[in-house]
User: Fold this.
Amino acid sequence: MYTVGIIGLGLIGGSMAIDLKRRGFAERILGVESDPVAAEAALTMALANELVPYEDCIARAGIIVVAVPVGVAVKMLPDILDRITPDKIVIDVCSTKEQICQAVKYHPHRPQYVSTHPMAGTEYSGPWAAQPGLFDGRACIFAQAEESSPKALKTIEEMYKVLNMRPIYMDPSNHDVHTAYVSHISHLTSFALALTVLDKEKDEKHIFDLASGGFASTVRLAKSNADMWVPILSQNRDNVLHVMDTYMEKMKAFRDAVAEYDEARIRELIDEANKIKKIIR
Assistant:
C-alpha cells in the first residue's frame, strides 16, 4: 500500500482519493488544496487523511498526483520533479498532454513521471463533486509511456487497474487531436448553446418550464468550470480551431438545407449522423 499525495482535491483528485482508499491501494491520502473553502470541505468529507502544505506532500508521498488545471500543472510539474527523490513517482491527470510532456522532456527525473488522462468526469467541480466509482469502466490514456521507467509505469498501471480503468497508450500530440474531437468540442458547443438560449430567451421561467431532457443533456456541459477549460482550450488551440471549423461547416450544411426547404438533404444529413449509433450506444 502507498502513501498517495493528491494536489487538488476537486472532482478528479477527490474521486481518485475516495476509491484509492476504499479499494486498498492507498494506505494514506495526503491532500493539498489551496482554496480554504474547498480545503475545509475536503476535510469534512474525509477525502484525505490530512491536508498538508505542498512541500510536505512531495516529501512524504510515494506517489504524487497533480490534479490541478493544466495551466497550473505545466508550471508545477517541473518544480515537483526538481524536489523528488529517486523512490517517488509523479503523475498528472490533465486533459491536454503535448505541452505538459514537452515541459519536462529533458528533466533528469523524467523517468519518474507518468503522464495520464483518465477519461472521466462530470460538469461539476470541487470537492463536493467527488464521487466513488467515477472511473469505473472508463479509458485512461497513458501519453508517452515509453519515456517513463518500467517500474513507475507498472505502478501507475496497477493504480488505474484498481480504479477499474482500461489503459490506452498514445503519443501526446495524437492524444490532443483526439480529445479535441471527442471532448473539447462537446464543451464548446454546449457553452455556445447556453449563450444562444440565454441571449434569446430572456424569461428564465420559460427556459426552466420548456427545456426538455434533450436540451438539458446537450447543455449540461455549459456548467463546467472556466478555471479548468480556459487553459485546456488555450493549450490545445490549433486542434480545437480545426475541429470548430469542421463543426461550423456541418452546421452550415444543416442551415442551408433548412433555409432551402430541402427535406431530402436534411434527411440525408441526419441519416449520416445516425451512423454514430454503431459506435456509441
In short: The beta strands are 2-7, 26-32, 50-51, 63-66, 89-92, 113-118, 139-143, 166-170. The first strand starts at residue 2 and ends at 7.
